[in-house]
Design brief:
Elements (H helix, E strand, L loop, with lengths): L2 H8 L10 H25 L4 H19 L19 H4 L2 E6 L5 E4 L2 E5 L3 H5 L4 E6 L3 E6 L2 E6 L22 E5 L8 E2 L4
Parallel strand pairs: 3-7
Antiparallel strand pairs: 1-4, 2-3, 4-5, 5-6, 5-8, 6-7
Length: 191
C-alpha cells in the first residue's frame, strides 16, 4: 500500500479511481487545458515572480470557472466531518517498518536508533517496528504502542564519532528511553 493509500485508509476514505478511458481522458484534458491556459495568462499579465503569480491566481480561477465549470449532478455536500478519533498528524506522517536487531538498534534515515533494554523493547527483538516520521520528529511503535521517546530533547541527534578524514563513516546515533511514554515524538535534526 502506498503512503497516500495508507493515510486515506486511516481516515476511512475510499479511493475512487478513474478506471475508464473516457474518465481518464477528461481529467487529462482538463489538466492540459489548465496548465496551458495558466502559463499563457501569467505571461500576458506580465507575472514574473511567484508572488505576482499568486496574486493573479484568484482572478484566473474565477474566470476559468465562469467559462468552464458545470454544475454538479447532485448539489448535496457529501463531505463528512472528522471523527473524534481522527488524528491528521498521525495519518499524514510517513511510516516505514524496520526490524529491531538483537542489540536493540534499528536504522532509519541514516540515523541509528538504540533502545533501552526494557521489557517492551526486548519483546520487539527480531520483529517489525514502525518508524513514524512526523517531518523531522520520529516515534517508534510496536503493535501500535510507542516504544519510547528520546532523552535530552531537542538536541537528540548525536553526530558521527568518526572524523572527516576517516574512510568509513558511521550513522548518527540516537538513544531511546523505552521506559518513558511515547506521547511526544523525539526530535531529530534542525526544526
Amino acid at each position: 500500500m502506498t503512503q497516500f493509500g495508507r493515510a486515506l485508509h486511516a481516515l476511512n476514505i475510499d479511493i475512487i479511481c478513474a478506471n475508464s478511458s473516457p474518465a481518464k481522458g477528461r481529467v487529462e484534458r482538463a489538466n492540459k487545458t489548465l496548465q496551458d491556459r495558466l502559463v499563457k495568462e501569467l505571461r500576458l499579465a506580465g507575472a514574473t515572480t511567484l508572488a505576482e503569480g499568486n496574486a493573479l491566481l484568484p482572478a484566473f480561477v474565477a474566470d476559468y470557472n465562469a467559462r468552464f465549470a458545470k454544475p454538479a449532478a447532485n448539489k448535496k455536500d457529501l463531505h463528512r466531518p472528522l471523527r473524534a478519533g481522527d488524528d491528521l498528524d498521525d495519518a499524514f506522517a510517513w511510516k516505514e517498518e524496520r526490524t529491531l536487531s538483537r542489540a536493540l538498534t534499528l536504522q532509519y534515515d541514516k540515523i541509528l536508533f538504540i533502545l533501552e533494554p526494557v521489557e517492551q523493547a526486548t519483546a520487539a527483538i527480531g520483529k517489525r517496528v514502525t518508524v513514524v516520521d512526523f517531518d523531522r520528529r520520529v516515534m517508534l511503535r510496536f503493535h501500535g504502542s510507542a516504544l519510547g521517546r528520546g532523552r535530552g530533547l531537542p538536541a537528540l541527534c548525536i553526530s558521527s564519532q568518526k572524523g572527516a578524514g576517516d574512510k568509513k563513516a558511521t550513522a548518527p546515533r540516537v538513544v531511546l528511553d523505552a521506559a518513558t511514554s511515547g506521547e511526544n515524538p523525539l526530535s531529530c535534526g534542525a526544526s
